[in-house]
Description:
Blueprint: H1 12-37, E1 47-53, H2 59-69, E2 77-78, H3 79-82, H4 86-93, H5 100-111, E3 120-123, H6 129-149, E4 162-169, H7 172-196, H8 211-229, E5 237-242, H9 247-257, H10 262-265, H11 268-274, H12 280-285, H13 287-301, H14 303-323, E6 329-334, H15 342-354, E7 358-373, E8 378-392
Parallel strand pairs: 1-3, 1-4, 2-3, 4-5
Antiparallel strand pairs: 6-8, 7-8
Amino acid sequence: MPDSIETIQPPDHVEDLEVKDAQIIFNSVWSQLETDHGEEDLRFPKEIFWLNGAPGAGKGTHTGFIMKYRDLTAPPLVVSSLLDTPEARRMKDAGMLVGDREVIEIMLRKLLDPVYQSGAVVDGFPRTKVQVECVKLLHQKLNELHNRFRDTELAHRFKKPHFHIVVLFVDEKESVNRQLQRGREAQAHNEEVRESGIGELLEVRATDLDAEAAVNRYRTFKEKTYGALKDLREIFFYHFINAHGTIEEVRSRIDDELRYQGSLELDEATYDRVSAIPVAATLSLHARQNLVDRLDDYAARQSELFGRVVDLIQSDFIPIIERHAISGSAAINSESEILHDPTALAMFIDVFSERGYHATVDIHRIEIPESFDPETFKIHTRIKRVHRVQIQFQGSEIRRGR
């Protein structure tokens, strides 16, 4: 289990200066974006995952899983890869952070790329207090645009923004071990590529080769990045994920964290309309136990009707289902009057469910001529009810010889 993180809080006057610096930087960048693109074309993603984590926590490993989970198709925006200036590289190699002004402008311009309109994962941002404040300011601006254009023909361009803060955490010992292991593996891979001439060389970070630099990189995250990110817990979706353990274990935790949050993501008016419908996951939570309780109740309180339903299934349905054992699917019509009773029909479906089948029933009403009145020339009809039952179950694989 990861250790808890303790951070040293800067004095209030330092924080005030950082907030002012963020406002100056952000307003400058935003003004330039408006000049270059025009306000009506400042189309940022509706949903942004701001992905951060301790060094070696597995951001690169788990980014694809997060994207697949949320149906995001655009490539992740890895902030570190955008910073290739000599000065930025020297700072990164020393385990230090790159200047806020440069990071913010490059990142915002990249997010305007149409490929990110449906959603984006931003890997490695925000990392400083100034960057955190800029995320707040960006969200504020996007909400202002959403409100300004919501009743216009451009409303589709300015959806309500949804920001997620995702923090993957491992403790210092695990982080340093993973960084150094990554360095050793990258060096071994590169040596093999040089000898064989096959494959591509991997980047080897200076901090992955030196234990002291790896410790310094972790402590930079701990003292600057994590401390700054805590300010966002009360504003955005905040997902703090223990990244210790296997890939499968960590992804299970990510899955738990990113489950449906419609009450927060939807506009209030939209949520009010749909909230009465239960979320699917809640229906299946105790579905098996509820099914067992219903069947026991049928047997105890409506034994005669329950017996007739079971007999009907055995006599009229199972022989046909058995003939479709290979396909795993059977469509059966029934005119049995037993199924005219809504309670019997509920029993019918529950029995199939308990036995591992998936049964759906469609009631088809057919008007049948019954008599003719020669005096009035009227045809008297009756309604015949046919229950069309679709049964799905695990089929049998056909083995073929050669």
